[in-house]
Predict the 3D structure of the following.
Amino acid sequence: MTAAAATRAYPTVWRRPPLIERTWLRWAITGGAVLYLVLSVGSLEINWARLSEGLERGWRFLIAFAQPDFVSRWDDILDGMIESLTMTVTSTAIGIALSIPIGVGAARNLAPLPVYLACRAFIAVSRSFQEVIIAILFVAMVGFGPLAGFLTLTLSTMGFLAKLLAEDIEDIDPGQAEAIRATGGTWLQLVNYGVQPQVMPRLIGLSMYRFDINFRESAVVGIVGAGGIGATLNTALDRYEFDSAAAILVIIIVIVMACEYTSSVVRRHIK
Amino acid sequence: MLLIKGLTKRYKTGDLALHDVDLEVPAGQVMGLIGPSGAGKSTLIRCINRLVEPTAGQISLKGQEVTGLGRAALRQTRRRMGMIFQEFALVERLTVMENVLSGRLGYVGFWRSFTRRFPPADVAKAFATLDRVGLLDHVDKRADALSGGQRQRVGIARALVQDPDMLLVDEPTASLDPKTSRQIMRLICEVCAERQLAAIVNIHDVNLAQMFVQRIVGLRQGRVVFDGAAQGLTPETLTLIYGEEDWSRSIRRDDDDDALATARTLHGEPVRERLAGLT
Amino acid sequence: MPVIRTAEDGFDWRLRTPRAVLLRWVGWFALVALTVSCWQLMTADTIWSFVTDAPTQGADIVDRMMPPRWDYMAKLWWPLWDTINIATLGTLAAVIMGVPVAFLAARNTTPSVTLVRPVALLIIVSSRSINSLIWALLLVSILGPGVLAGIVAIALRSIGFIGKLLYEAIEEIDVTQVEAVTASGAGPTQVMDYAIVPQIMPAFAGITVFRWDINIRESAVVGLVGAGGLGLQLEASLNTLAWPQVSLILLVILATVLLSEWLSAKVRHAII
């Protein structure tokens, strides 16, 4: 120990400074959180008799998961899967194709202000509702069936990809784009040489990811009548056929895993 | 103090990082470890406190075997070896005080450390050490709010509150500017002299090493190729350590400037005489 | 080899060799063919007279939706409260279950890479593959309709989300900080507390708030299958074709979503 340490008395207590410095605010936030928890948990109406019955059903479901039944509803499952997969492929392909011009239009560094505002407004509207709600509206418009699901997924693909693409384009290295502009290139040449190479890898990655999401969503829109495996699943659960439901879920999980694996391979390949 | 015998490290990839290294570092001595990148300097330091598990050989601290210790005993031994890092390795989102107190983790139980209620003696020691490195005004700042030199001082304080017997110092100045580098090296040498700590300092800058340390060990491809007084470095020995290059300008002459004098007077006796008895 | 020797002993430059050009055309053609055949398979049973009728139908629905039935709001306050609770309590439960899973799944904190990690990853991928609404469907069938099924559904879906993003954050931490704390003689739990937790705290807070924001959207629709909240009213209104009520519910959902987005952006900004 140095001489200074021996002569000077140092404090023997130290407290970490609190995250929120103002005491009243700290207490208000803590108190508010506790109050909310008490109120929200208190407002749950739990039917204990129904719940104990549920435990037994849950157990049956777990057992069904161990031995899923692919056979007895195979025709329904196959139809649902074909609808889901075709819906996913078409909506992803067309959604990507439509999202590119909108994404470019929503990038402030490429588009003039009116175009920018229009594209941003479209993105905001298409993203503000859950897919299922949009699916309900489309079913009301074009009738039951996978076409309604296709329209839903296309619309949400456009909103999703266009937003991320626009953000990506706004984040590009301006030096590279400037260099192309400096050579006297037109706007299209600028996009082709200065922007596209920079955003392409991420666009491909995002498209793969969106394929994945679209497949998962295609399983849901069927619940409201927009085609796909969701309808089959809904029926199976309504009839308490847990083994068929488990088979459908297993198929969904396997396909999603396959998609994720493929997209990770592709992404590694294009980097 | 520290005795290393036949230390060998082969990584899983098959690379032989250290080959039959023998070293002895007495109390109070600051030893500079130089060598090209990939020579095994960092591996050597990390083998001593077994952040890297050695393949063969023995390490003993104050007569106690380090190799072969069980988990709990290894924790106890790690307390006695303070480590200082190249990029400071402070936990950036914790306060300066928490970083310094983390040096006492080997001494306190989990709940005390979890609730940040360290024993009063530890807190006083942490304040005293922060005073020693000149950071008493920054106790409650977050580590990422400090400058490079200040962060390295926190790193030194963290190593010192462990009450170590020796310091393991890995490139302490690699991310600092020349002036701060000298201040940090001086601080390390001073505290080692004050507390009679042995120290091994990995360092890239041969010039800076010569300015502050008494003994230099050169490592090349995992082998010790030079071990002697800092003034014993010649263009030939540097060629031996690093390979062919024009070394004439990077060697300090004895009468170069006052830094060497500082280093000498610090330790109270002419460097060369002390070294004579060691090697 | 993009540089091609021409007949006149000069050089010509092409981006790709003829073979590569051909392969790319084949690839694009396959993609288009796949899409077109999927389209035909999908629309085989479509009744096109309904589709051509769609704009009129849409206009008709909008017409019937206007104006929203404002006095219906009195019946929406309670479902709104339920919706917020489903999202918040569901997120909370997901955090409690998802954080340990993340630590078990991260390569640098898992107790065993060969045994424990694959199990944790399987939990994450199963939870992620199945949409909240399907979880809700399942849980309504098991637990019976009600808010509880919604909370559990949201929680089960969020485990995978939180687990995945958090374990990626854990794998990306700075190892030298961990090394430094280990070198001071700290035990494994202390290393966790002093070196790992502080590093992932911002990511953790960001992920949680982000997921809460998503969960608000999802909890508004889990009621469609009986799991409580605004979706329940939406389902009831749709079944009775009470379009003015539907439009009001959609407005309430929209307002809630915008508010939660604003709030989560604020909180994330404050944390980081």
Chain C touches chain B at residues 174, 176-177, 179-187, 189-190, 193-195, 198-199, 201-202 (CB under 8 Å).
